[in-house]
Amino acid sequence: MTRPGRADLHLHTHCSDGSYEPRELVRRAHDLRFTVIAVTDHDTVAGVDDAVAEGERLSVRVIPGVELSTLDADADTHILGLFVDHRNPALLKLIEHAAAERRQRLRRIAELLQDIGLDISAEDVSNHIEGGTVGRLHMAEALVKHGLASSVSESFLRYLGRNRPAYVAKWSPGPQECCRVIHEAGGVAVLAHPGDVVDEQKVERLVEAGCRAIEAYYPTYSRSLTETYVKLAGRLGVGVSGGSDCHGSRKDRSFLGTVSLPMKYVDDLERRKG
Ligand code: AMP
Ligand code: ZN
Ligand code: FE
Ligand code: FE
To answer: pLDDT tens for residues 42-71?
Structure first.
């Protein structure tokens, strides 16, 4: 018999680049009948405590998580840490290092924008949440707010995207280190959104590096692509994860409710942690 329940194991809050506060995210998930969710902000766990507290109030199980950026073959690749102890010192050390690098990068981006005559500074951007993440999306929004670009996508097209004048690469730990720290923190490392085109070598490489599951359920993946990843996970002996990667209204639209991970996979993931 299939276990009742509804799960989404990939969600962002305004502690990184989502638009909902942690408690609001949990309320929205509850309204959509989710019973298990994971909060997985980019390089921060600042939203976990509030989300867990709201989850306890509403009987939604909130799994502490994080989405770490890593470099794989020169490509920005994301690894989710699910079921982590979000107070684990090794995890916090890695996150704090990434945050410091992000702040420094933001200052460099601001300098490059100033060099081409735009009146903006890193202070115009701050993510007001303590321990929150700052990235290019926050700078893009600041440019719009200051009347220096007409939209977020124009900010990327003209200034912040790769090969544009204010592009600065992001420091990232290697995939092995990400996986090691996630497992040391008692979690399970999941290769996030492996790609719209199946690249088996990439997936194998990242499983080799320590990923114990693949995110096969994702809003932009067709049923057959999901099925392909589920089969690949089976062949590689790893678990299956999935989620909507909801950023609220901050990106195109809210994908919350468009992905439900079958509960058998949630249970299996939990057995792979630590
Ligand atoms: P960062 O991690 O600081 O490099 O920022 C990455 C963020 O910028 C992610 O949320 C991306 O989805 C977003 N992003 C990248 N390129 C674009 C684009 N062309 N338009 C809008 N958002 C983008
Ligand atoms: Zn994001
Ligand atoms: Fe991601
Ligand atoms: Fe994400």
So the answer is: 999 999 999 999 999 999 999 999 999 999
Atom of ligand 1 nearest to the CA of 69: 2
For 156-171, the pLDDT digits (tens) are 999 999 999 999 999 9
For the CA of 170, the nearest atom of ligand 1: 4
Residues with beta carbon inside 6 Å of ligand 1? 17, 135-137, 152-153, 156, 161, 170
Q: Which of 181, 250, 215 minimizes the C-alpha distance to 43?
A: 181
Domain 7-94+185-271 maps to which CATH number in 3.40.440.10, 3.20.20.140, 2.60.120.460, 3.40.50.1460? 3.20.20.140
pTM for the full model?
Answer: 0.95
Strand order in the sheet with 239-242: 7-11, 36-39, 61-72, 75-82, 188-191, 213-217, 239-242
Domain spans of the chain, in order of start = 7-94+185-271
